[in-house]
Amino acid sequence: MTLYHDSDSIAAMDKRIRAAFINSITGFKPANLVGTADCAGHSNLAIMSSVVHLGSHPPLLALVIRPNPVERHTLDNILETGVYTINHVSSDIVEAAHQTAARYPRDTSEFAATGLSELWIDGFAAPFVAQAAIRIGLKLRDQQTIALNQTHLVIGEIVHAHAPQSCITAEGAIDIEAAGSVALSGLDSYHESRRIKRMAYAKPDQPPRELEQR
Prior knowledge:
By secondary structure, this protein is an alpha+beta fold. It contains five helices and 14 strands. The chain has helices at about 5-10, 15-25, 75-80, 95-100, 110-115, and strands at about 30, 30-35, 45-50, 50-55, 60-65, 85-90, 120, 130, 135-145, 150-160, 180-185, 190, 200, 210. Strands 3-2-6-9-10-5-4 form a seven-stranded antiparallel sheet. A hairpin with an 8-residue loop joins strand 7 and strand 8.
C-alpha cells in the first residue's frame, strides 16, 4: 500500500507531522555545522542540512536558512562579518552536533555548550570545528530572501578548504566516506554511507560503465 497526499491533505496535516514528512521526503542530505562569530568574536555553531553546490569556478555554495520569527544568530553573524564556515559532521560528534540545534541564548556559544572545539585561522573571522575532518571557510557573496516563504538564501565563495590528504582521490575528488562524513534524513536521523559503485562519465554513444573501486 502506498500513502498518497495531495496539496489539500498536506496543508491539513498537523504542523509537526507536516514538517517531519516534508523534511524527509527529499532523502539523504549533508550534515554540516555552520560556524560564525559576531564582530566582537563571540562564536556560534548550528547544524544545518541545506548546503547546495552552485558552481566550481568561482567555487560557490548556497545555504538555506529558515525565516526568522525568532532570532537567527547564524544569519545575523554572517551578515555582520561577511564570513562563515561549513564543517562536516562525523559519527563521533553526532550527539554534540545535534545539540547545537537547541535554542541557546545569543551570549552562549554552542561550542562551549556541546564540548566542540573552535579552530581559528589568522585573518578569518569565523571559527571552524576542530573535530571536523572536512572544513570549509566562505565569504559572503550574496543574500536573498525568497518571497514565497521568507526563507533566506545565503551564497558564499569558498576561500579556505581543509580535507585529509588520505581522502583525496587521484581525480582530485574528496572521498567523503573515507573522511567519515555522515548524512541526515528528516530532522533527526543520522546515517553512515556505504558506496555501492562508481560510474564512468555518461556518454550518449556508450552504455553505462562501472569504474573500478579505489
